[in-house]
Amino acid sequence: MGYRILETDDIPGYLRERGHWDDVSDIRVREVSDGNMNRVFLASSADGTRSLAVKQALPWVRVAGPSWPMSPDRADAEARAYDQVAKVAPDKIPAIHGYDPENHALVMEDMSDLEVLRTRLNEGEPYGPHTSARIGEFVAQFSFATSDFGMPSAERKALIAASVSPELCKITEDVVLSEPYSEHEHNHWHEGLADLAASFRADTRLRTEVADLRHTFMTSAQALLHGDLHTGSVMVGEREGAHVVRVFDPEFSFVGPVGYDLGLYWANTLVSEERARALGTLSDHGDQLRLSWEAFETEFRRLWPTRVDTFFDDAYLDRFLRRVWTESLGYAGTEIIRRIIGFAHLTDLTTLPDPVPASRRALAIGRELIVRRDELDTSNAVRAVVQPT
Ligand code: SR1
Ligand code: MG
């Protein structure tokens, strides 16, 4: 039948065709699309006892419309990432009930009982004691398993070949790792930030450091990554008395530097901290970089004795983790900057009564993380950059 764009009314029939639901008369559907890229529908039974989510990639960037075409093959990358994570961290992703490559659609667990982490933080809630630890473990488990430490060489070469995602990587190379430092029609900013945007474009030291991070993004094939691990890609909540953390939306998944995933998460925690500081709701925000790193490092070291290639010795592990730390700081800086003067901004800042002071502070922090990443060797050193004097 070929690829067709699903509308709300198509979902009951689609779920029956795909073998997920027999009684179409029982299905109620609502569209809940929220991110920049795709459509999402929630289907539930009339009595509310059963529900599923359907996510479909459109042939364009959803928020831009058909003027920005984008292959829906990105859903293949998402399904592939979920397959890999399911082997090592199934408790940290939604249950996937099926992938339909013809329609680029995933049928998955309805997580509407949980809340997007960014939404919760924007409402003034704290992270709580477990969220960032689970994220650190997620990055460690996923990256270790898909690195040369956790996967036999030939299997990994096949994974690298299958996971090449040129179109989505190009988006990141452009909107995250170059456009914010050049004149580009995608860029926009609050008028109170125009001087900083101009100074970043003229900052040759900063541009060279970003070029280095960009080239590492393009060439370092350490592990399969989520690729867009911001606080809008994390759901949190309680189920049966337990704190639940689910990472979703890995459509930007590719084989790259592990620090890219940690760095994106760190950037978003640091921006959430600036929002909380501006609103006087600061709580545990300042602990999150440290907590996620400690959980990442602990889990990576716990997995290390299981490595398949033992030529990589313990001394190399220390060196590898140091490199991940340093690159994470650099990518955190690029994510902060692009979210303020690039294409896709963060509601953490845009919904502040006056976004300018917090955005200026965040931009300054982002620059520091990039240009001083080699010398910022502990979470306390990073704190000294972030903490107002
Ligand atoms: C055109 S896409 C802009 C951003 O939206 C996605 O969520 C990614 O973060 C991407 O960089
Ligand atoms: Mg997304």
UniProtKB/TrEMBL annotation:
InterPro entries for this protein: Aminoglycoside_PTrfase (IPR002575), Kinase-like_dom_sf (IPR011009), Methylthioribose_kinase (IPR009212)
Keywords: ATP-binding, Kinase, Nucleotide-binding, Transferase
Domain of life: Bacteria
GO MF assignments: ATP binding; S-methyl-5-thioribose kinase activity
EC number annotated for this UniProt entry: 2.7.1.100
A biological-process GO annotation: methionine biosynthetic process
Enzyme category, top tier: transferase
Boundaries of every Aminoglycoside phosphotransferase domain copy: 29-286
Keyword Kinase applies: yes
Oligomeric and partner information: Homodimer.
Family label: Belongs to the methylthioribose kinase family.
Protein name: S-methyl-5-thioribose kinase
Species assigned in the record: Streptomyces caeruleatus
